[in-house]
Amino acid sequence: MITDTNDLIAFNQDWMKKYTGQSQLVLKPKTTEQVSKILAYCNEKKLAVVPQGGNTGLVGGSVPVFDEIVISTASMNNIRSFDESSGIFKVDAGVILEAADTFLAEKGHIFPLDLGAKGSCFVGGNVATNAGGLRLLRYGSLHGSVLGLEVVLADGTVMDSMHSLRKDNTGYDLKQLFIGSEGSLGIITGVSILCPARPKSVNIAFLGLESYEKVQKCFQTARSDLCEILSAFEFMDRDSQQLAAKSLKTTHPLCQEDETGVDSVPEYPFYVLLETSGSTKEHDDEKLENFLEKVMGDETVVDGTVSQDETQLRTLWTWREGIAEASQQFGGVYKYDVSLPLDSMYSLVEAVQERLKKLNLSSTEDESKPVYEAVGYGHIGDGNLHLNVAVREYNKEVEKALEPFVYEFVSKHHGSISAEHGLGFQKKNYIGYSKSKVEIRMIKDIKNHYDPNGILNPYKYI
Amino acid sequence: MITDTNDLIAFNQDWMKKYTGQSQLVLKPKTTEQVSKILAYCNEKKLAVVPQGGNTGLVGGSVPVFDEIVISTASMNNIRSFDESSGIFKVDAGVILEAADTFLAEKGHIFPLDLGAKGSCFVGGNVATNAGGLRLLRYGSLHGSVLGLEVVLADGTVMDSMHSLRKDNTGYDLKQLFIGSEGSLGIITGVSILCPARPKSVNIAFLGLESYEKVQKCFQTARSDLCEILSAFEFMDRDSQQLAAKSLKTTHPLCQEDETGVDSVPEYPFYVLLETSGSTKEHDDEKLENFLEKVMGDETVVDGTVSQDETQLRTLWTWREGIAEASQQFGGVYKYDVSLPLDSMYSLVEAVQERLKKLNLSSTEDESKPVYEAVGYGHIGDGNLHLNVAVREYNKEVEKALEPFVYEFVSKHHGSISAEHGLGFQKKNYIGYSKSKVEIRMIKDIKNHYDPNGILNPYKYI
């Protein structure tokens, strides 16, 4: 139990420092039974609660809005079991994603999810928010890989569905409701998930391209020629790399130090980070080599570097994974995470840049402007764009320029206003841009049915 | 509208001829709007309906129990759209699975599901029953690959969730409830599904093995060494192959004709059919060759044949896919489809064989015995066993010998009493062997909420 004002801060505030609650009480149960007792009590007394995992969410879903009680799963962090013959892994909700993957690595397996926040986020939170991340292209969504869940419902009932079967067609697949429910239907306390064999050979290519059209062409070729070994295909625009360069303070993979000894600034309009994972190194190398020959030959790609050694791999990944933090370096960031058809995906970034310029809100040099720059990057393979608007301060005028503009753009192109970040507090009122009235009614029905007193993560989601 | 007694037979009876209803009316709507109007009317008048796809189900889920109105999706069979850049495919529920896959083949893509009944079953029925089939090992379950659904609810409301996004975290993933709901929550009228690139190279190995332990060992090696190109790993016991040999009347792939000119009888205790699918023929061939050298070298496998040509591939598959029909050749079949931990999987078949022998119910020679033989086969990679009890007649004594014996065995080993066939009419009363009281209550709650008058596929599922 945490009640000390100083200790409460970390639980009341999200990592972007954008959402701050006023909770006076954090509970850290150690067992599912304790979670059950807490919820039964809170439900009876109609006390609102916020389930919290690693608190790495990006939409204000994991912190209180007012003085809700925080229920943190941080003290539930045991690995329950791992079956080597089937690859089925059972963990407490509070296990850190990276710790889970490190454990699996020793057994020759891999967690079918990877994301920038892996060092802090919890597996339970990943499932509750249906995290997508970097390996979705290869291993699919959590709706496919999660085999079972243990969930405590609002009234304290424990739903033990910690199944360890790849196939089970006996009744509605209840666990699916909780994947992506963001703590609004119950608190996930345990996860059973299928973990594939860890690839024996991993390659990364970091490429420079001259247009967004070339990025798309490069993806089509990669999907066809690298097919079963393609495990990530990420794109980054120039501005995102320039931001990262300022923050990482190392030489960009496609730059040399210039004559003055200063790192050059990344200059290609677009970059691609492409990963292959397979079982046979020579085959993977040959496939990648042939692919690179093809895309460099027809000038889809104009520059590139390839890496196979673990340290180099990690360094290359920082130029993709470091963008999130780099976007915050001037004071703050407005983050949008949308699904869009591939061909219209980048035009959202261009439209936003143009709009901010036109409204005279944005400049990389003039420090009196609230916006530094809007950058775009993301998972081409999943049709998922991240639009980060790096700002010098959070500002109502900027917000009005961005919303509902971004959501209207996405809705017009039949996209999703939240591809992987969820709804949380930020997007609660915008669900209508992505879902129909019938769907929204059905979602509300389910919420009301399972949490009639509305104690679970209120003021959010729906 | 079909009301003619003769024409009604095909809709009243399942393909095993085990379940027969007395419906006097079959409706074949052509549009979602018509389905909506039919359901709105039936709901108001409290008329029970049975949604029916290709009527290839194995648990009596798609035929009436009494005189329910059959709503067939057979006249809703248009391909709505296919997007080559993303692989997203939208179809009416009544499109035949094989027709869908043939269409996709021309575009260089593949339907992420394949099963023996592909020539008759409908895509909508596949989704409604969460069909698993032969490619699950590679492409995962429909919970991962289905992106959107159009569903008509009991009161006629159309839930249009025909999304074409790989990622969308805006609200509960409602479509998941309908995947595997067997027509008990609504009628699926449209499906949006992600279809991967069609592999350019396909190989099949058909292997003979001396024990079930060797089958497991062979699978572990295949998963590790063939890894990303392994697309099916099926096992069949000797008795299943002898049944198939009687029915197919061709030479078994691991037999030669003997001196009398008669086909020899398959003699290895176990057989494995293993498929690889990849993008680069030479690499796949080399991987398979190295794998075979290893498993033949250490005597995991004692005999085998490899095939790469389309006709040979199909022939080899018939020895796996033909077992279902072969099991019926003496009069009928009791089919069980269970998930079990790999190491105890085959012991169910042995236990049933022993039990039937002990009760003096089974003989391949003595035609006065009701049971011909119990055979086992299935998807090792998915932990999914098919147990077929081939009988000369459907018989109460045999049923009492099998049930609840089989379900108790499965429950004791924490398996599922229905891995992929569903509950339907056959297993409605046995769900308690696989699901907890809390889960069953939640399933009933959902059913009552969405279908308060109980008009959708009554007397089944739950």
Automatic annotation (TrEMBL), chains A, B:
Taxonomic superkingdom: Eukaryota
A Gene Ontology BP annotation from the UniProt entry: lactate metabolic process
Reaction catalysed by this enzyme: (R)-lactate + 2 Fe(III)-[cytochrome c] = 2 Fe(II)-[cytochrome c] + pyruvate + 2 H(+)
All residue ranges annotated as the FAD-binding PCMH-type domain in the record: 19-198
Keywords, comma-separated and alphabetical: FAD, Flavoprotein, Oxidoreductase
PANTHER family for the chain: D-2-HYDROXYGLUTARATE DEHYDROGENASE, MITOCHONDRIAL (PTHR43716)
Family the UniProt entry places it in: Belongs to the FAD-binding oxidoreductase/transferase type 4 family.
Listed name of the protein: D-lactate ferricytochrome C oxidoreductase
Species this protein is from: Pichia membranifaciens
